[in-house]
């Protein structure tokens, strides 16, 4: 509601007297119009002012309270607003809702036919060892096998790196790996297409997801801390989704996930799991290491 | 019959409210423009606080790691310098985090910061649409369009604001530049640029957020890494706008502040306006 709605009749009647104080009508569509001058009874003006300022004040208080609740617990504690952990289920619901909407947007943007940009060798940048905890001891590599489960055959498969390199064609690509933290690196990868593996070892018909696991991953203090990610099969079938075996033309080193890692450039780096030991195809969305820690589940970029 | 200023005093004293001497008012801001204007306050605060927490995870500006502390983030250096030199901060428990503890949600809060940033970002986009609809319905967009004389006139206004405190001190008259538009040129430049900065923030934000699916958008800003730099500095455009904006509105008086709440102004006859 605005002033004019409540007082349109007098305003309309006043145009004749308002015209006398207005400059001539504008010539162009883009030219600024002279303001509409209205005459309003002082009581009405006071009443409307009081109403609007009160409404504004209530809105400001609501916004401050709502905004304050939305801030993280530790921030509120530091500010001295709260002194102990409280749980507002609605807050989690709202923030997780935003995360889910964002995941839906990412899924809607994704297309199997849209390729990510590729780069030239001169654009390659350094790629750091980003093992979240300690880098695993390379002693696992000689014994390494990839286990496939949830296959259409109902059996599980166990493959060595020799099997994989002998049975699949390797594809090379120089793509950007983008970390959720914001940094990125352009690297030269080679590996087999995940799509080829899916064709060679088809998953069960109702499978929509892959759970990829690395049992050799270590936690921050060198403790065993298996890493696992969920990957929708639609993304797994993207032509640039590789099960990478090589970096910069050489077999992967332990810090980059020897002997086989996921390279899925349409997802954040945290989905690009290193040293995969098991892939399980499932109908329902499997758990995800970082989604459990408050990050998105889909992570499409 | 509508009220009229020609009514004589007796009639005013005995009449019903409708028949009293009226106050001349002009419409300033459409309801939707006002709503989106004020909503920007909590939204931008949320975006900046969470945005700097996201920045903390991987600062775009970094120097060679300090051999002693291993620190590479200039903002952490600022915190350490402040805690070493500013009285009262010597006991601060975590000097490298001082800046992030005061202008962000805090360090080490990437997951919560991202969730809050997405929530605020989607609301910011919707709020921008509300603003555009309000400008279209109220016709206010015409008052924001840049004019050929704006740069020169904006400099005149800038000079006026710079000289005003000195002129007051020297008790000299310091005339306000005359204009016959809703906003003066400096206001117009600012009120036009800030929505453009908002639009660019949204586009650079999407470039960073979906650098693969929207790589064509990121390419406009020079690619993923450059889009991050754009996004970072666009935040400072808002900060640098808000400070003088608030000071000047408060200096201008209640009518200007009120007009953004109630939508109209009683300055129907201000000398430098349309209505002289």
Question: What does this entry look like structurally?
Answer:
The complex is a heterodimer of chains A (301) and B (276). Chain A is built from eight helices and eleven strands. Chain A has 301 residues and is of the alpha+beta class. In chain A, the strands form two sheets. A five-stranded mixed β-sheet of chain A has the order 3-2-11-6-7. In chain A, strands 4, 5, 8, 9 and 10 form a five-stranded antiparallel β-sheet that branches. Residues 1-20 of chain A have low confidence and may be disordered. Chain B has eleven helices and two strands. Chain B has a two-stranded antiparallel sheet with strand order 1-2. Chain B has a domain at 32-62 and 109-263: Fumarate Reductase Cytochrome B subunit (Up-down Bundle), CATH 1.20.950. Chain B is 63% helix and 3% strand. By secondary structure, chain B is mostly helical. The chains are: A alpha+beta (301), B mainly alpha (276). At the A-B interface, α2, β1, α3, α4 and α5 of A face β1, α2, α5, α10 and α11 of B. β1 of chain A pairs antiparallel with β1 of chain B, so a sheet runs across the interface.
